[in-house]
Specification:
Structural class: mainly alpha
Helix content: over 70%
Order of helices and strands: HHHHH
Strand content: under 5%
Largest sheet: none
Number of domains: 1
Low-confidence stretches: none
Oligomer: single chain
Distance between the termini: 65 Å
Shape: elongated
Length: 135
């Protein structure tokens, strides 16, 4: 078990300098762009911050996760396909656990981290603009 974990960490860090490194920038950028678009829409519709609401409001959790999955599914699947190609080139084998870790890190995490702050920032900006225009 320990050897498996060590190999997984070494393989994960090896992806940064190996072939297909461009995807480590491209896929999170795509997920971030989708998060910005969703965060802007959330701000227009006065919705609460995305990730925080998932964590704290069980009544909205399933619907929000469904929305997030719908937005990031293509990026997630692309991350899986590209990591399979990478693993076949570098390892001549596919390690599913590493595959899922990479796909989540490249597609899901950026979306979760960016959508809520964009919503808060834009909402704050709109409130500030309204206060400035009313005086």
């Amino acid at each position: 078990m320990r050897d498996m974990i060590v190999r997984a960490w070494m393989n994960l860090f090896g992806r940064v300098g190996g072939p297909m490194t461009f995807r480590i920038i491209l896929q999170p950028t795509m997920a971030a762009l989708l998060a910005v678009i969703a965060g802007l829409k959330d701000a227009r519709e006065n919705r609460p911050p995305y990730f925080w609401t998932i964590l704290t409001d069980p009544s909205q959790r399933v619907d929000l996760i469904r929305q997030g999955w719908k937005a990031t599914a293509r990026v997630f699947i692309l991350a899986i396909v590209m990591d399979v190609i990478y693993q076949l080139i570098m390892e001549s084998w596919v390690y599913p656990f590493e595959l899922l870790i990479v796909a989540v890190l490249l597609a899901i995490v950026p979306y979760l981290l960016i959508r809520g702050p964009v919503n808060r920032l834009v909402s704050w900006w709109h409130r500030r603009q309204k206060l400035g225009s009313s005086t």
